[in-house]
Amino acid sequence: QVQLVQSGAEVKKPGASVKVSCKASNYPFTTYGITWVRQAPGQGLEWMGWINPDNGNTNYAQHFQGRVTMTTDTSTSTTYMELRSLRSDDTAVYYCARGTTVTTKWGQGTLVTVSS
Amino acid sequence: DIQMTQSPSTLSASVGDRVTITCRASQDIHSWLAWYQQKPGKAPNLLIYKASRLESGVPSRFSGGGSGTEFTLTISSLQPDDFAIYYCQQYNSYPQFFGGGTRVEI
């Protein structure tokens, strides 16, 4: 079955960067975009943007412009989301999901904790 | 940006109840709306897309309606497995904001 498996939890200091991976399996990787969504503790869902693995095109939410980079490695069917200049309010679970409009399959989530 | 507003934020109900959640968009999004269910510690799960189309495998007690700026998610007969948080999301334009969520509790 279609699977998206994310990398493990991270603890970072303010100002640092984090890179979360999302490995896809059991479907043609380049035929679906990957969307990233985050959820702060006890809060709702925040759309971050997406990447098209076929051509590398991206669309980032204005809130993250300049701090986020999404990339893909088609040889390993893996998508990466890097967030820089971390702040305490970036503490959240970060999800990848298949699709760029409706997202039909989600990864398990990666907890990123930003703390000094 | 298109803002999404859900109501109520919390809904108390009992097994067997019919419940309706409302989602309003700040601009016309036609029928480009999805509904997701999220349980504690889990990723969201797609229920409805294009406002009223049931995702494969989702029980038929879930239904969606509306177009333009006002949408509804209805659960015809609430089951114990349905106690969760529900989110709407517009995908008419970027950024694809979610609503604030509706917690359905006993």
Written account of the structure:
The complex is a heterodimer of chains A (116) and B (106). Chain A has no helices and eleven strands. Chain A is mostly beta strands and 116 residues long. In chain A, the strands form two sheets. In chain A, strands 2, 4, 5, 6, 9, 10 and 11 form a seven-stranded mixed beta sheet that branches. Chain A has a four-stranded antiparallel beta sheet with strand order 1-3-8-7, with no helix packed on it. Chain A is globular and about 40 Å long. Helix content of chain B is 0%, strand content 46%. Chain B is built from no helices and ten strands. Chain B is globular and about 35 Å long. The N and C termini of chain B lie far apart (34 Å). The chains are: A mainly beta (116), B mainly beta (106). Chain A binds chain B through residues 35, 37, 44-47, 49, 59, 61-63, 95, 97, 101-104, 106-109, and chain B through 1, 32, 34, 36, 38, 43-46, 49-50, 55, 87, 89, 91, 94-101.
Summarize the structure.
Chain A is built from no helices and eleven strands.
What are the key terms here?
heterodimer; A: about 120 residues; mainly beta; seven-stranded mixed sheet; four-stranded antiparallel sheet; 11 strands; globular; B: about 110 residues; six-stranded mixed sheet; about 0% helix
Oligomer: heterodimer
Largest sheet of chain A: 7 strands, mixed
What proportion of the residues of chain B is helical, as a percent range? under 10%
Q: How many angstroms separate the termini of chain B? A: 34 Å
Give the distance, in angstroms, between the N- and C-terminal Cα atoms of chain A.
Answer: 40 Å
Radius of gyration of chain A: 13 Å
**What is the average per-residue confidence, as pLDDT of chain B, rounded to a whole number?**
96
Low-pLDDT sequence parts of chain B: none
Counted by DSSP, the helix tally of chain A is 0
Give me the secondary-structure category of chain B. mainly beta
* Largest β-sheet summary of chain B: 6 strands, mixed
Number of strands of chain A: 11
Number of strands of chain B: 10
Q: What Rg of chain B, in angstroms, do the CA atoms define?
A: 13 Å
Walk across the major sheet of chain B and give the strand order. Answer: 2-10-9-4-5-6
Order of helices and strands of chain B: EEEEEEEEEE
Number of helical segments of chain B? 0
